[in-house]
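Subject: for your reference before the review

Hello V.,

The reviewers asked for a structural picture of the protein, and I figured it would be easier to keep everything in one thread rather than splitting it across files. Below is the amino acid sequence we used in the manuscript, unchanged from the supplementary table.
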Amino acid sequence: KASFGRINGTLLNSIFFGGVVAEGGIETVSQTINGEVIPAGGTVTPVVPNSGTYVKDLGVTDAKAIPLKRVASAPATGQYSVDAATGAYTFAAADAGKTVFINFRYSAMVAGAKSITVSNLDMGYTPEFAVDLQRDYKGKFMHMNFFRCTSNKLGFSSKQDDYDIPEFEFQPMADDLNRVFKIDLSE
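And here is what came back from the structure prediction:
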């Protein structure tokens, strides 16, 4: 079992998914953090981060976190409509002055970003990797090299006020030379 504090797309793909990694483009979710005040005209177009492109509506809530109902057009109080091409949200004239929180998905080009498409692989295929573990303490060391491993568990914590630290478990097995691991010790 291991934990790592840095989420790295290429590493996750190599260990777990064996998928296709695309560089630079991301598709992610945004929410208007401070809310949007509905103007007299009733139309709000949220600013898409990173000069991105609006992709999809994910819902709207009012200041009390009560979801508004999406309608095709001509929204009444407590309803909204959205232009899927532009990301412009339209609210009822009676809702002018109220604060709403808009959730939406957007795409953007971000240097260094990774996008992984995970497919349903044939049964029996599992990405394999090697693991090197090193422990140093007061000038002494221990190093273990596991020649072939597979991972059987990946977990992401869902705490709201703490760091996301992925945990994974792996299982060593014999490689093609029938080696499982090698250990080097300073004593």
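For the response letter, the relevant points are probably these. The chain is about 5% helix and 50% strand. The chain has two domains: 28-109, 121-185.

Happy to draft the paragraph if you're swamped.

O.
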